[in-house]
Each structure stands twice: as structure tokens, then as C-alpha cells.
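Side project, low priority. Logging it here so it doesn't get lost.
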Amino acid sequence: MKQRNLFACILAVMLGLPTVGALGQKTIQIVESFNYPAGGVVTNSPQKINDAGDVAGVIDSLITGQRRGFIRFHNGHFTPPVVDPNDAGGFTDMRGINNSETLDGAYIGGDGLFHGFFVTNNVFTDYDVPGSTGTILLANNNNGDFCGGYATSANPNNTAFLNIAGTVTTVTVPNATTSFCYGMNDNNDSAGQYTDATTGTAHAFFRSADGTIIAPDDPPNSVAAIIFGINNAGFQVGRFTSATDGIERGFVRSPSGSVVVLEKADATLTSLNGINNQNLMCGRWQDINGIGHGIIAKIVKAATD
């Protein structure tokens, strides 16, 4: 179970600042900003990054409304748009990528329901949680395990799940109406977001491999949060809504609980969606026109006066 730097978190809440501590006086540096080379107006949403630096993500057309997947390789080259062959709703959502270049995600089928998929070497394989009426895959690790959310006829609200070595485990977050597991590492620690049944607020949660759940698990000075990714060392990335100005910002959190926030002066939103085992991160920033731009980022020592 991960530890928390209690003093740093209390201080951050008092001052309305992100925590320091194990991350020291650090900042997040955007190494690259990129856009998918597509015709028309598209918004870019990189989702996960593997240890080679290859990124899986999605592009959304602001003209047609269609969603398509993509891979951006570490050399800057892109694949053509990835479309599941059974996609009947103009929606192929590419989410996970591991070191074997196995990808996962979800599409809308001819039945109008979400179905999970894997793709390796351009071969697509469907996956639905047994007995579900909808399955969304959101991440996979290097052991072949994966996670996401599913719905049933008895419970149409999505519920987070893990599939470890072929066994499906429902993640039961206390007092949650809906939940999704957005990230998992090779140790089978996982994290995501849930909606509180009492307040209707979206909060982050963390589940350790032994089944212990921390919920809510939001950064200090936030009113809502989500954890998108977690690496083998326990570093997490995600996004939170500031209690001070209401702006959504990306963050990275160390295993001890210290937080560094992604700031970009010309952005209306920042988000960190994936982190690999070299602590290289992917995500996006949004401009004043609502267009999302992909980023690769890393943690660096903060400049001093």
C-alpha cells in the first residue's frame, strides 16, 4: 500500500499549492508538443506511453464527430488512423499500449453497445466482460493484464474491473455510482475515477495489488480528480480541477504523495494521461479554441533565482 507525505499534503491545502517533498523542487517540462497529421480540424488526446516512448491515443474530428485511434512512435512517425473493423458508430477509442505493442480500447458496435478490443500487428480481437452489456478497455500492462469498466443489465452504470491472468475482478469503490479503472502497472496496482453517490462529484481512487482501496485519492486543493496512469515505481499521473480557480490541470504524484502540477500559460486545460517506467509522460493541453494538442513531458529540476 502506498504511503502519503501527510505534512506536505496538509501544507499544500493550507497554502493552496501543489506539494513538494520526494519530488523535491521539481517542475514538469514539455519535451514535445505535437498534432496528428490529419485533414480537417481534429483534437489530439494521447493516452498511454510505453517504455520505448511509443504513444497510443485518439483523435476527434470537430467536423464529423468521429473518434479514431493512433500510434505515435518515438521517432515522431504516426500510423494511419486506427479503426476497429466492427466499428459501426464512428467511435474507435485507443487507450492502452504495452512494451509488446499490444493495444487496447473500445468501439461502438452495430448493436449500439461498447465493446472492448485488443490489436496486435493489425489483428483485432474483441473482448467483453462475461455477462456484460458494455465493456470499455482503458489500459494494459506488460504481463497481458488489463482494466477498464463494464455495465450489465442489472447495473447499467459502469463499474471498474481488472482482468489479471484471465480472472475478472470487480473493483468495488465505496459509495460509488460509477467507476472506471484507467491505469495499472506490472505489479497490478491500479487507479482511476469514480462518482460519489452522495455528492455526484468525480474523485480519483487508487487500488493496491492486495485489494486495498484509497478513495477519494485527489491531489490537495482540488474539487475533482482522475488518475489516468501509474508506473511500476508507483508514480501516478492524472488531472484535477483546482478549488482556487476551477481550471483543470495535469499532475504527477510520487509514491510518497508529493505532487507537481503541469502549468502552461496559454492552455485552458492540461492533462497527463500516461507515464512509463522512465517517468516519461504523455498527455495534452487545450488551447482557447478547444483544440487539444499532444505532449511528451518529463520531470526536471525547477529553475532557481
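Brief comment: Residues 6-15 form the longest helix (10 residues).
Revisit when time allows.
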